[in-house]
C-alpha cells in the first residue's frame, strides 16, 4: 500500500568522520514522482459488494483471514468498511503472505506446477461471541474431534454445557456436512448461538497449515491418544464418536497466539537466532 504525498525537505549538510560532505536535497523537475496504483473498476466493485452486505465486511483470501493483523487497524478489529481497510489488513498479515507465497506448503500433489486463482472473499460482518465458536476435525468423513476455538480463555458455559454442545454439533455434521463435502478429510469451524442453533462459518484444510488448537496434528492424523486420554490443564470429554476438548479452568488461560505477530520480523528472527546474518550484525553493534 503506497501513500502518495509530497513534501519539500530543506537542504542540510551532513558531516562525515573525516571529510565534511554537503548533501543538497532539492526538487528536480526531472525527478519521477511515484504514484499509487489505481484500480477504479475493482474499487467500485468491492465497494458495491460491501454496501450490499450492510456496509461492513469480514475479508479473507481463498484460505486465510488476516486474523494476525487485527491490531494494526484503527478499531483493532477485522471489520472493514472500505477497500483501504482490506489493503491495510492484508499487507500487514503473515497469514495472507503465506497464502500468496507458499499456498501449497505441507501439501503433496501430482501436478508439478499447480495453478491457482486467488479470490477476495467478503462476508457480512456479524458480532460473534468467541466462546461460542468451535473447530471440528473430520477424518475419512468421520467427526473425530471438537475443540474450543478461543482456547486462550475459560468460558463457564462451555464447561457446563459441553455434552449438549458436542451433541448438537454432531447432529449438525451428520445432517448437513457428512458425505456432502468434496474431500473426506477437512476441518470446519462452527458457531453455536444462544438458542443452540449451529451455524457453519468456514472450511479449512486438514493439515498442519490449520491450527489444531487443543489437539496436536500427531493425535489427529494417527488417532492415538484421542480415546479417553485427558491431558493436564484441559478438559477432554469423549462423546462417541468424537472427542470434545475445552479449557476447563482459569488456571490454564493462555496469552493470545497472535501477540507475537505485533513484533517486527527482524526482532523475532534476532531473538530466535533464525537469521544468522542479523545476529552477527547485532553482535558487531554491541561490540562497537
Can you offer a commentary on this structure?
The structure is a single chain. By secondary structure, the chain is of the alpha+beta class. It folds into three domains: 69 residues, no CATH class; 123 residues, D-amino Acid Aminotransferase, Chain A, domain 1 (2-Layer Sandwich); 29 residues, no CATH class. The protein contains seven helices and ten strands. The strands form three sheets. It has a six-stranded mixed beta sheet, covered by helices on one side. A two-stranded antiparallel ribbon has the order 1-2. A two-stranded antiparallel ribbon has the order 3-4. The two termini are 37 Å apart. The N terminus is likely disordered. This is Translation initiation factor eIF2 assembly protein. ATP-dependent protein-folding chaperone for the eIF2 complex. Binds to the gamma subunit of the eIF2 complex which allows the subunit to assemble with the alpha and beta subunits. Belongs to the CDC123 family.
SSE diagram, text form:
Elements: E1 12-15, E2 20-23, H1 40-52, E3 57-60, H2 83-91, H3 94-101, E4 121-124, E5 133-139, E6 142-148, H4 156-177, E7 186-192, E8 198-205, H5 217-222, E9 235-239, E10 242-246, H6 265-272, H7 276-287
Parallel strand pairs: 6-10
Antiparallel strand pairs: 1-2, 3-4, 5-6, 5-7, 7-8, 9-10
Amino acid at each position: 500500500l503506497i501513500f502518495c504525498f509530497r513534501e519539500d525537505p530543506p537542504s542540510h549538510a551532513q558531516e562525515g568522520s573525516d571529510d565534511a560532505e554537503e548533501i543538497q536535497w532539492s526538487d528536480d523537475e526531472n525527478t519521477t514522482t511515484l504514484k499509487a496504483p489505481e484500480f477504479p473498476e475493482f474499487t467500485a466493485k468491492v465497494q458495491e459488494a460491501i454496501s450490499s452486505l450492510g456496509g461492513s465486511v469480514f475479508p479473507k483470501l481463498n484460505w486465510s483471514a488476516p486474523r494476525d493483523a487485527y491490531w494494526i487497524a484503527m478499531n483493532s478489529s477485522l471489520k472493514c468498511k472500505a477497500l483501504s481497510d482490506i489493503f491495510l489488513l492484508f499487507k500487514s498479515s503473515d497469514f495472507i503472505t503465506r497464502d500468496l507465497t507458499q499456498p501449497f506448503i505441507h501439501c503433496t500433489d501430482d501436478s508439478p506446477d499447480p495453478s491457482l486463482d486467488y479470490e477476495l472473499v467478503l462476508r457480512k460482518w456479524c458480532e460473534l461471541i468467541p466462546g461460542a465458536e468451535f473447530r471440528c476435525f473430520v477424518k475419512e468423513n468421520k467427526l473425530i474431534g471438537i475443540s474450543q476455538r478461543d482456547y486462550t480463555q475459560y468460558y463457564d458455559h462451555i464447561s457446563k454445557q459441553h455434552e449438549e454442545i458436542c451433541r448438537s454439533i454432531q447432529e449438525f455434521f451428520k445432517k448437513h456436512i457428512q458425505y456432502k463435502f468434496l474431500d473426506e478429510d477437512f476441518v470446519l469451524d462452527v458457531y453455536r448461538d444462544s438458542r443452540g442453533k449451529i451455524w457453519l462459518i468456514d472450511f479449512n484444510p486438514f493439515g498442519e497449515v490449520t491450527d489444531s488448537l487443543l489437539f496436536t496434528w500427531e493425535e489427529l492424523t494417527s488417532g492415538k491418544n484421542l480415546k479417553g486420554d485427558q491431558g493436564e490443564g484441559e478438559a477432554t470429554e469423549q462423546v462417541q464418536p468424537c472427542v470434545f476438548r475445552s479449557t476447563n479452568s482459569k488456571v490454564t488461560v493462555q496469552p493470545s497466539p497472535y501477540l507475537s505477530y505485533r513484533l517486527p520480523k527482524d526482532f523475532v528472527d534476532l531473538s530466535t537466532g533464525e537469521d544468522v546474518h542479523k545476529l552477527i550484525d547485532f553482535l558487531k553493534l554491541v561490540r562497537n
